[in-house]
Amino acid sequence: MSDQDRMAIDPALFATIFVQNWENVRGVKSERIWFMNTYSVISAGSLSLLQSVHGERVIELTLILAMCLLSLVGLIGSLRLKAELEECLERIRTMVARAQVDEFVALGRPEGESLRYPAFRWVFPIFYAFGTVLFVGLLVYRLAAGGHS
């Protein structure tokens, strides 16, 4: 018996799988926002602290290196979450299409040429990539400046 036949026969199984995928999508979206909020607060605090420890080279470099690593973790994590989000949304799209209820489920794909917009899923990886580049650039600058920053 194929998966499609099983879901057609057992609506409870279909509903359980659908709800599980939908809750996973919501969880991924929530996780991305929480990590971005945390990252933003830590970044702002680190940049403020960096100004108050000006001249303490070891502390400055350690703080910048920690932010480089946190930015990289954010980038890798956001790419993983993006892939997980896309997988769940694709499974939901497949289930919706097989059940022929796609006109009732909003999955963020507006129709029509005038309604095209960039996928928001790329905002998070771009944000962390940008943060990583900036903090690495700041680290290189501070290393190149030596004790004269």
| Number of E-state strands | 0
Kindly report the average pLDDT value: 85
Number of helices: 4
Strand content: under 5%
Q: Which shape, going by the Cα principal axes?
A: elongated
Q: What is the rounded distance between the termini?
A: 70 Å
> Which stretches are low in confidence, meaning pLDDT under 50 for 5 or more residues running?
none
Q: Estimate percent helicity.
A: over 70%
Q: Structural class per helix/strand content?
A: mainly alpha
Instruction: State the major sheet.
Output: none
H/E element sequence:
HHHH
Radius of gyration: 22 Å
In short:
The chain is an all-alpha fold. The protein is 77% helix and 0% strand.
Give a written overview of the molecule.
With 149 residues, the protein is mainly α. 77% of the residues lie in helices and 0% in strands. The protein has 4 helices and no strands. The chain has helices at 3-9, 11-52, 57-99, 123-145. α1 crosses α2, α2 (11-52) runs antiparallel to α3 (57-99) and α3 runs antiparallel to α4 (123-145). It is elongated, with a radius of gyration of 22 Å.
Main attributes of the structure:
149 residues; elongated; 0% strand; mainly alpha; 4 helices
Sequence-ordered SSE layout with sheet pairings:
Layout: H1 3-9, H2 11-52, H3 57-99, H4 123-145
